[in-house]
Write a structure and sequence with these properties.
The chain is α/β, with parallel strands linked by helices. It is built from 8 helices and 7 strands.
């Protein structure tokens, strides 16, 4: 049975792999797009995109509502939109905190809120967030302070969703990758051992499992997809 799935951040390196994998699994996918990426998924008949400013709450709600008009119901939301910035506490100012908070938390929250309401009315649903290793390990987060702090909010949001959704068949899963093997990361860290990194394809397969009949039985799940890094 195919699901109707909302994905934010679908045009990034990870997003494209997730869309491809879930499309191959027969799902109907509704993605948010930036203004420069409107034609990215034209070859996928089961992928529908809409340009959305995820920092605008009303625009995000409108996207969810427009999706529900087309799909009638949505079974899952996958939140891949975000950004990165390095810097210790001493190197971090209010502007850096606000930017990371907006990109990594609000872009998800603005979709979570209307989807939570829909899931409650529709008998359940799944949320999948992409966490970050520095948000869990202080020794890695200390030099990525604003980024790690903003990503840590996703873990707490997932906990609150799971607490509220416990009797409503609503679940939240956080997938935590280590360094993702992308061309941009290879260029940024040319001396690293790429074999220890995790591929976007492996993360996409993990997401597909969480959405499967077996994966839907998971509860309060944090999946550390680290490989050897």
């Amino acid at each position: 049975m195919s699901n109707n799935i909302i994905i934010s951040g679908a045009t990034g390196n990870l997003g494209r792999e997730v869309v491809k994998k879930l499309s191959d699994c027969g799902n109907n996918i509704y993605v948010t797009l930036g203004s420069k990426s409107v034609n990215v998924f034209d070859k996928f008949p089961d992928v529908k995109g809409q340009v959305v400013d995820l920092l605008d709450y009303d625009a995000s709600v409108n996207f969810v509502n427009q999706t529900l008009i087309q799909a009638k119901s949505v079974q899952a939301g996958i939140f891949l939109a975000g950004g990165y910035a390095s810097g210790s506490i001493n190197e971090t100012d209010d502007a850096a905190l606000e930017k990371m908070f907006n990109l990594n938390f609000l872009t998800a929250f603005h979709l979570v809120k209307p989807l939570m309401e829909h899931f409650e009315k529709n008998g359940g649903g799944q949320f999948i967030f992409i966490g970050a290793k520095p948000a869990l390990i202080a020794s890695q987060g200390k030099d990525n302070f604003a980024y790690a702090l903003s990503k840590s909010l996703l873990f707490k949001m997932a906990e609150f969703i799971n607490a509220e959704g416990k009797s409503k068949n609503i679940t939240a899963t956080v997938i935590v990758p280590s360094t993702i093997d992308t061309m941009s990361n290879r260029e940024a860290m040319p001396n690293a051992d790429f074999n220890t990194w995790i591929s976007a394809d492996d993360i996409a397969k993990t997401i597909a499992f969480v959405l499967s009949n077996s994966g839907q039985k998971l509860r309060e799940t944090v999946l550390k997809v680290y490989n050897e890094s």
